[in-house]
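Researcher: Next entry in the queue.
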Amino acid sequence: MGKVIVRAEREEDVQAIDVVNISAFECEREAKLVTALRSSDAFVPELSLVAEYHKRIVGHILFSRARLKCQEGLEKVILVLAPESVVPSQAHRGIGSLLIEEGLNIAKTEGFTAVVVAGGEPSFHAKFGFTPATAWGLECNLSIPNDLVMAVELQKNTLCAGKIIYPAAFADYIADTNCD
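Model: Structure for this entry, 180 residues:
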C-alpha cells in the first residue's frame, strides 16, 4: 500500500481537483465554489491542499479568508474550511483527516488564529477541536442555521462574539440549487 502525500495544490492540479469535488459531492457546486474562491482575495494558495495516493489526486481541502466582526467593534481575519472532499473509493483511508490536520497545522504556522466550518459532520469535526460556534456567541452571514457552524481557535482567546462574514462566493454557492 502506498503512502498518502498531502501538499499544496499546483496549477496542473486544477482539473483533478474539480474531478475530486464532483465525484465526492456528485455535483458541480463545490467545483464552482473552488473556482470562484481561487479568483478572489479570500484565496490562500498554501491552504488549498491535495492528497495524492499513487500519484493521483484523491482528496482536496480549501481554507479561505473570512472576516469576523466582533461585537466590541474589532474586525479579525479568520479562515473558513470548505469544501473538503475525498473521492468515494478512497474515503476509508483517513484522507479527510490528514487534509484537515495538515491544513490546521499550516494555518497556525501562517499566523491564522481561528477556523470555522459550516455544515458537515459535527462529530467528525469535533475530533479536530471544532465546537459549536454559538459557544462564542458567533453567527454567520450565510442563510444557514447558526447551530451548523463550528469553530476552533488556533490561538487561545481569539474568537469573540460577533458575526462571521464568509466570502461572497459562498452566498452564490448556497443560492445554487442545481444539485439539491
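Model: The chain has one domain: 4-175.
Researcher: Noted, moving on.
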